[in-house]
């Protein structure tokens, strides 16, 4: 028995599926004949540059730098080792991407002629994991197909084969391996199918080994960016715009001696902006905080994107010569920005710049008029047309298109000076104003720093520009460092820490008296006369949540946002009449599950049948109640195999829930749903360390935990094993919140293990009660005492209610009102 336990404990649940040696040998064979395929069309950057600039006026574009071997440079990032620090990180990322490609290799799989595709040499390949985005591929990527030689039994012929003539053996030869470098011409993520262009294919077995390859251009673009910025960092001893963007300190800030004005001088396009959003936009427009990044810290549902859209519109309205780059880490996020900007702009003012690798079905129909299409691909508009756009929306990575097209500020200034010097050699060379006047990065916490650097190189001024009196480009980033960060193949902190998060951790932002972490009692204090003089805050803290019920917000607000979130959403009580809420009846429920987790035999991942049935039963119960539609329910799990199982169960004959959204946890970041059901899946603790090593699960993954809880608007159900989850301090706090308020449903199969009493020594009373929980309890007491219900069954929580804030912070109400009155007098 002991031996059995030892054997099971040493098994690797994430081990790759067994692949016969004969199949692996095909990939490693030396006698391979490589057959290329026709690539997809791409932008001819050299021709594009020739369309508006001669070679005499622009220095030749340097060749793409090769990524060298990594050399250890230490763990602390400084201006002096910036290039080496991220060079090493990118080398690790490239190695991790190769491993990721190897993990997704397919063996002895068929390809079929692509149905309903009239183009020649097109074949379809089914790729597991494509729907769950566990494999990142794009149009134009190369996929290696090695055609297999099979005998009559279907076995692979890999060894020497005898060649006969007239009954005599002439030679023993291994079969020639044909490696087709196929090219991805279409991607159907929903059905997990790639359409490949495969030229010169012999119709033999039609069985192939499939190897995915990393595309060097993706790493090369980031490496080029850090190389460019490193050169700027070393110019003039680092006293430059680039240094203040990447390593700002207090000396780069501006001292504030008077209180902020109580009025604004611009008219908002969005009439629904709140005070914090208006103040953020106004501060950037005034530009009195220095030539440093302005950071908008926006927790879930607080309107980060709304703020950035308003800021972009105000920037171009303020100056007719303004041209703004608006970036996001992903195409969907960039599309969202475009959808909101298009309401106020016409196509000749706004460009949504897409890479040629993007397929047309991915792009919302309503923004296609704002894109430039060259025959059958997305491309760059002509130079004169591009220069007239007031706002260009592009992903951080695709900003490389502007760099390669020589449309960065540095290249445009060099071009203008070169032409002017050629036309008027007798005149002194004048320094022109910059074309790109600002860079806004939304969801900046999801971009790696090298990705953000690509966008920075577009707007960065040329060397020596800081010595002029001309305006420098402003940089504004909005994000939430407490949600999921950059998605990378490697797990090294250098890439998993965004530029946004790194900047917020610098003393200029972290130690400022108005920083979120410096607020006491969960109440954001205003700037007062007594605090002056002070470095003007180069940041804004958004606090009003327009998404979730206060009971859903209580735990995340306390754990991640210093208890500062203010619930402002309306109609969040529409699910309260569901008859299976427990305890106080708040729309939060922890449902215990002790059903065993298990792993697919082929190493496909973890699943939990009991949990899948529970999740579907909860969703079905809500649908039967008539309170909600299927499209408003979301079921998520951190494990790919569990997602597939839940889909099968939900779509099956028992439930027939085809409209319910079911997917991996990461896919729901940035989204919201009326009802969210979280499947934690893991019910055994012995594999937690291996989960962590692979970056899976929700245990000891605080950012993943935060994202999961904050997707819900009106109802939140978490299914899990409390004994396993309580090993995580964040989950312990959530479990304690549920236990204190009776929001707990025990497992019928394991009453003792699933009961709230199994929490052990960490009694719920030992945890700090959050401000929002206190407010909910206070509200319940008021309702019980006076039988008076507020509108929508919920008392309005107003951030500027003096009585409430005084009660929360333990201050005297009269003194607090007096402080506000003094502030108003000072501003007036």
UniProtKB/TrEMBL annotation:
Domain DNA2/NAM7 helicase-like C-terminal, first and last residues per copy: 536-721
Subcellular location: Cytoplasm
Domain of life: Eukaryota
Listed GO MF terms: helicase activity
One Pfam short name: AAA_11
Residues covered by the DNA2/NAM7 helicase helicase domain: 272-342
Keywords, comma-separated and alphabetical: ATP-binding, Cytoplasm, Helicase, Hydrolase, Nucleotide-binding
GO CC annotation: cytoplasm
Name of this protein: Uncharacterized protein
